[in-house]
Each structure stands twice: as C-alpha cells, then as structure tokens.
Amino acid sequence: MKTILVCGDPAADYSAVERCYEDECRVERFASKTPFQKALAGHPDLAFIDVRFLGEGPGRGSERHYERDLTAFAELAPQTPVFVLCQPELTREAVKAVKAGAANYLILPLDATEIAYVTESLEELNQLQHELDYLRGRFWKKDPDDVTQTNSPVMREVFRKLRRVAPTRTTVLLTGETGVGKGTMARLVHLHSNRAAKPFIAVHCGAIPETLIESELFGHEKGAFTGAVRQKLGKFEIASGGTIFLDEVGTLPPSSQVKLLGVLQDRSFQRVGGERDIEANVRIIAATNENLKQLCRADKFRTDLFYRLNVFPVELPPLRERVEDIPLIAAGILSRIKRTDPSDIRGFAPSVLEAFRLYPWPGNVRELENVIERAYILESSDLLGPESFPAEMFAEEAASTLLPVDPSLPLSEARRRYVDDMEERYLREVLTRHKGRIADTAKHAGITTRQLHKLMTRHGLKKESFK
After folding, report:
1. Which residues pair with 82 in a beta bridge?
2. Which helix (H) or strand (E) holds 84?
3. CB of 310 closer than 8 Å to CB of 270
4. Is 149 or 297 the better-scoring residue by pLDDT?
5. pTM value?
6. Under 8 Å between Cβ of 343 and 376
7. What phi and psi, each to the nearest 5 degrees, are found at residue 340?
8. Among 21, 84, 253, 441, which has the highest number of CB atoms less than 10 A from its own CB?
C-alpha cells in the first residue's frame, strides 16, 4: 500500500489523489508545512504540497527559497518525489519550484488522470535512469566491498577520474590526508585495469630504512653489499606485468628518487650491484599526504620526478568533507567485521550516527575503522551505542542537540519546545533499539501502547521507519 502525504488548504478537495490509486494508498493530510516535513522522515511513496507553503518568509517566491525547503525535504526522504500543487494564477511560481528541485507540478483542482500521468511518467524516467546507472556501474562490479557507493559530489568526481584512468597505463598520483583511503583507491584502479590478473604490490616507502629501500624496490645481486648472501628480487620485478603502489613516496631518499626517475623515463632498472638492465613492465601508482610541490621548493624532492609522477593527479577529500558518506562507509566496515567475527549486532544507534556526522575525524576513514572495531568488541546489545565509543566523540553531538535559547519566548513556551525536542529524540532512539515494535517500545518507555501511538502521531513518527 502506498503512503501519500498532502499538504495544502484544509478546505481543498484532494479526493482525486485517493481515486487515482483506489484501495492501494493511504493519504495523510496536513494543514501546515512543519508536520508535513516531519512526516517525510517516514519515507512515504509520494508527497504533494501547495506552492504557497514553500519558501515562506523573507524572499518568498524566489527559486533560492524554494530550493531551501525542497533540499530539506530531500534530505529527510531522498527517494520520495515531491509534487507542487498550485492555483492556475500561480503556475509561474510552480515552475520556479520545479526548477528548484520539485518532481513536477499539478494545477488545482486536481484531476485523477493528470495525477496518474505525471507520476507514471516520473516512474518511467526513474526506471530509465536506474538502467543507465546500472550500465555505467558495471565497470565497478569487481569491487568486493562496494567502496564506490557514495552520496558525495566530491567523491563522485574522484570515481569519475579513476574510471577514466584505470584502463590506461598512465602513472597516477593520489594525494590526501593520512587515512583517507589512498591504498583502497590504488587497489581499485588496479582491479579495473587490464593488469588485474597480475600482482598488485604495495610498498610503504616511509616504513623501510633508508639503507634498504633500494634493495627492497629494485633487488640486489649476491655479494652486492655485506650480508647480501644471495640474489634478491625487488618489488618492481615481483610486480612485473601488474601494478606497484608507492605509498608516502615523498619520504624516498635522494638516491632512490634518482633511480625511480630512471624507471619512469627508461622503463628499466638494475638491481643493486648488478649491470644488466631489467625491463620495468609495471604500472606505477604513487601516493602522498605531503605537498610535493613544497618539498620540491625546499629541495627535498626532485622536481623532475614530481612531474613524472604527477601525470594524472587525484586528490582524495578528508572524511569531514564527505560526511554524507559516513553512514555508507560505517555500514561497509561493520559488514566486513561481521564476515570474520559474526555477531547479532545489526547497526548503529541514531545518536552514534549523529555523533559520526559532527566529529571532525582527524584520522579519516582509518580512524572510523578503528573506533567501530573497538565498539564491536565492547558492545553487548544488537546496536552499537554511545557507551562503546570514545566519550570525546559525543561532546559536539551533545552540544548540538540542545535547542538554541530564544529569550523572546515566555518560559512556558520555551519549556514546551525543549520537552518536545527531547521527547522526539528519545522516541526515535527507543524505537530504533526495538526495531519499531510498539509493544516492546512502550514497555521500555513505561507507557501504554495507546500513549505511545499518540506521541508518535504528534511527532510524525512511523514504526515502519525503524524496522
């Protein structure tokens, strides 16, 4: 059964909506925008709102103000199409709303045939888009952990670049803060290149002593130096036909920089103590969390090597600049942990996800992985709750949940607003913990199921949203 929200003049006739879908829908009506917006959190199938309820306040009637409301609706229910209703004389305003993000508009009084036409047209368009996304996305199907899922425009651009460069043999330079996932992106490029069946060899340049780095990368001949009792193959030789990932390439000592430059220029190298040229049939992906241009200016990195590595640069954003992806990344991390260490833990408490959104993540994705793994060990319930995470992660979240003080309000009204806010957040938390089960939630809260139903109606909560 479809759930449809309608927000408009209480005296208007909206029966055409019900006639359009007959017994297949449940229509909820609202006389103002606030409860309508709260009800969107329940992810209805369709929503209709009178254009006069959009962009209220100063500047009303501009695309920017319509966009403000429509963006807020989309954040609550990204899969719910919102249609604008208007009187014939307000058609121009409805068109502005469509440009600002509404799915389409309908002129009052409503006609069931017109409703069916615009909604079916939208469904056909969405189906075509899904098919197109599927065809585009087939390129990434080799990724076992589905790391290419993203809601971030910045990351979509990153994946667009990686998709274009992966089939080539072009040298790639990945930049970004520590822990943003440069190694994961390098492996992704390898998996989607024509070298995928060959080795992927990762080398952390900063973790190898300077005296051993050339031997590790290029190998050595027997007797090349004290302790070289046998011939050793280097990483470039082991990676032949595949990809070598040079992480923290900015830490390479000058002598190794010279030899790496030779590999990039001549596509060959010699083992330490050797005289024979060995072909470097390998694709190089380098990564750094330092500014190589600044290192070049400080004479700590060769400028000619920088230009050889910087053929196709890709900058990865820090986690704090892609907060919309945190729930997806966290769910993927939890799924990977459960594969190796199964448990009844099924997800994250809402307060934890909110804390994730507000926390600055100085250690980026790596830090997120660490705190989730720690919480997974400590948690005793079926949801990862605040008690299992470091307390400092919730300092910002606790401050943000407090409503701003409005001294212009009477004390009674200010108190009512604070109570309503606390009540709604409490109900969301408890409903989530009990997967939307009314009887269990009411028992936990110490109230009757009837009282719980009344509270949920007041705050626009639906049990289906918590299952």
Report:
1. 47
2. strand 82-86
3. no
4. 297
5. 0.58
6. yes
7. -95, -25
8. 84
Could you tell me the pLDDT band of residue 173, with boundaries at 50, 70 and 90? very high
Q: What is the Cα–Cα distance from 201 to 36, expressed in whole angstroms?
A: 54
Q: Dihedral of CA 225/226/232/236: which sign? A: negative
Mean pLDDT of the chain: 86
Are 237 and 280 in contact by the 8 Å Cβ rule? The answer is no
> Which domains does the chain carry?
2-134 (3.40.50.2300), 153-317 (3.40.50.300), 323-353+362-396 (1.10.8.60), 402-467 (no CATH)
The distance of Cα 189 from the centroid of its chain, to the nearest Å, equals 19
Name the amino acid, one letter, at 346. Answer: R
> Phi and psi dihedrals of 187, rounded to 5?
-65, -35
Least confident of 10-24, 138-152, 251-265: 138-152
Q: Which residue in this structure is represented by tokens 């651009």?
A: 157
Separation CA 126–CA 133 (nearest Å)? 10
Strands 82-86 and 46-50: parallel
Integer Cα distance of 71 and 74 in angstroms: 5
Whether the predicted pLDDT of 58 surpasses 80: no
User: Which of 405, 387, 400, 418 lies closest to 357 in space, CA to CA?
Assistant: 400
Token pair in block for residue 97: 């709303």
Q: Is the dihedral of CA 343, 348, 349, 351 positive or negative?
A: positive
pLDDT above 70 coverage of the chain, percent: 90
* Residue 452 pLDDT exceeds 60: yes
Q: What is the pLDDT of residues 345-379, one digit of tens each?
A: 989 988 888 889 888 899 999 999 999 999 999 99
Q: What is the DSSP string of 410-421?
A: -HHHHHHHHHHH
